[in-house]
Amino acid sequence: MRTLWAQLGSIMGSLMFLSAMLKSFPPFSLISDYLRVYTNRLTSRLSPYVRISISEYSGDRQAFSAIQTYLSDNSSRRANRLKGNFLRNTQNPLVLTMDDDEEISDAFHGINIWWVSVVKSHEMFLNLTFPKCHRDLITSQYLNHVIEEGKAIAARKRKIKLYTNLPGRGSILLTSTEWRDVLFEHPASFDTLALHPEKKEEIVKDLVKFKNGKDYYAKMGKPWKRGYLLYGPPGTGKSTMIAAMANFLNYDIYDLELTSVKNNMMLRKLLIGIERKSIIVIEDIDCSLNLTEKRKEKKKKEKKKPEEEDQDDDNCKVTLSGLLNFIDGIWSALGGERIIVFTTNYLDKLDPALIRRGRMDKHIELSYCCYEGFKVLAKNYLDVESHHLFGRIEGLLKETEMTPADVAENLMPKSMEEDNESCLKRLIEALEMAKEARSGKKKKEDEDEGNRQGQEI
Ligand SMILES: Nc1ncnc2c1ncn2[C@@H]1O[C@H](COP(=O)(O)OP(=O)(O)OP(=O)(O)O)[C@@H](O)[C@H]1O
Ligand SMILES: [Mg+2]
C-alpha cells in the first residue's frame, strides 16, 4: 500500500515541480497557484495516511528531545543510515541518531508508523506518517507513549557527573570560579555500605520519599529540597555514603569547596549553575567555618571599624549568613529536587544556626564498625558470609572502637594467595591491639583522675 502511495506521491511531486516551474514565468503564475493548491488538496483527499510534522521549535522542547531520544534508541537498531555524535567525558562517547531524511518504522498496537527526520532552513522537523483511520489512537495515545518512553530511556542512560568548583578559565588571580565536571564512577551502594541494617533502611526510605515527593512538597508549599548532616570520626563512611546516595538516586554531585569561594556573590553564581536532580556537598563544614572564624580573628587584630567589617564580609569571603541564604533563600528559589549534604568530624564545633532542624532535616551519625557492618565488609572484601572466627570478631568489635575504614583495610587480602582465614586473623590481631591500647588509655586516665583528686584533698 505504502509503495503504491509512494508512486502516486511521486506523480503529485512532479505536478508540484511543474507548478514551481510555471511560477517563474509571470504569465503562468495564476495557473501555477491553482496547480499547487489543487495538487495539495488532491493529495490529502486521496492519501490514506496522515502526516504530522513536529518542529524543534514547536513549544515543548523537552517533549521534542524525548521523541528524539526514543527515535535514536529505535533507529540505532533499525535505520541503515545513522549520524554519529561524540560526547565528552563518557565511557561510550559515540551516540547514534537517525540521519536526515532517513526513515524508520515503528509499530503501536499493530499499527505501522513511519518517522523521518528532516532539516529545512536550519530547523529540524520530525515527521510521522500513519494510516488515517488510526488518527485518534496515534494522536491521543501513541505520541504520549513515545514521549514517556523517550524520557524513561533518557533517565536510564543518564550518567552521573561529579562537579567541582575550580578557578574560572583564564582567571590568573583566581577571582572567579566555575563548575567543571567529570564522569562519576564510584561503585558505592547501600548494599556495600557497612552500616546497621535498620539505619540503612531508614535512610533509603527517606531518600525514596524525597525522590517521589514532588507532589507532597508542592502540597505543603515547601521547596523540594532536603538537607542531611553526616557526622562521625574519619573513616566511618561519610563520603562513601554520599556516593551511595548519588548512585541510588541517580543524581549528580556538586562538590562545593567552600574555602576556595571568595565571597557570597561568587557563591551565588555557583549555586545558580546547579541543575536539578543534584546532591550539593560541603565536606568538613567545620573547617570551612573555621576559616571564616580565622578571618574574623585576623580582622579583630587589624581593629577595623564595624562598617568596614561588614563591607569586607560582602566582598572578601563567604559568610555564614551567605551560606544560610543559600540553604533557605536563594537555594529554595532555584527549582527543586536538590539535596544538600554537610559532613563533619566534629558536630559540637558547628554553629547551631547552621544545623538547626529545618535547615538540616536529617542528622545521620556514622560511627565505629558494628558487627552488622563488619559482615557487609566481609562479604564485600572476602565474599564470605559466615566463618567460625566471626563470633570472636563480634565480641572484639563490642569492646573496641575501630572504624569501617580500618576494618576494611585489615580484611583486604594482601596477595592473590592469601586466604580468608588469614585475613580474618589479621583483623582479630588488630582488634586485640586496639582493645589493649584502649584499656591502657583508660587505666592511665583513671590514674590521672586519682592523682588529681588526691592533690585536691
Ligand atoms: N561505612 C562504610 N562502609 C563501607 N566502606 C567504608 C565505610 N566507612 C569507610 N569505608 C571505607 O573506608 C574508606 C574511607 O571512608 P570515607 O572516605 O567514606 O570516610 P569518611 O567518613 O568520609 O572520612 P573523613 O571524615 O576522613 O572524610 C572508603 O574508601 C571505604 O572503602
Ligand atoms: Mg570524607
Describe the structure.
- One of its GO terms (molecular function) is ATP hydrolysis activity.
- Belongs to the AAA ATPase family. BCS1 subfamily.
- It catalyses: ATP + H2O = ADP + phosphate + H(+).
- The protein is α/β, with parallel strands linked by helices and 457 residues long.
- It folds into 4 domains: 1-47; 54-157, no CATH class; 161-365, Rossmann fold (3-Layer(aba) Sandwich); 371-447, no CATH class.
- The chain has helices at residues 2-23, 29-46, 61-78, 135-157, 197-211, 214-220, 238-249, 264-272, 285-302, 306-316, 320-333, 352-355, 371-382, 390-399, 404-411, 420-456; strands at residues 49-55, 82-86, 94-98, 103-108, 111-120, 123-131, 161-167, 177-183, 225-231, 252-255, 278-282, 338-344, 362-365.
- The strands form 3 sheets. It has a 7-stranded mixed sheet, sandwiched between helices. A 4-stranded antiparallel sheet has the order 1-6-5-4, covered by helices on one side. The protein has a two-stranded antiparallel sheet with strand order 2-3.
- Strand 4 and strand 5 (111-120) form a beta hairpin.
- Helix 1 (2-23) packs antiparallel against helix 2 and helix 13 runs parallel beside helix 15.
- The protein is elongated, with a radius of gyration of 32 Å.
- The model is unreliable at 309-315 (pLDDT under 50).
- Adenosine-5'-triphosphate (ATP) is lined by residues 193-195, 234-240, 345, 366, 404-405, 408.
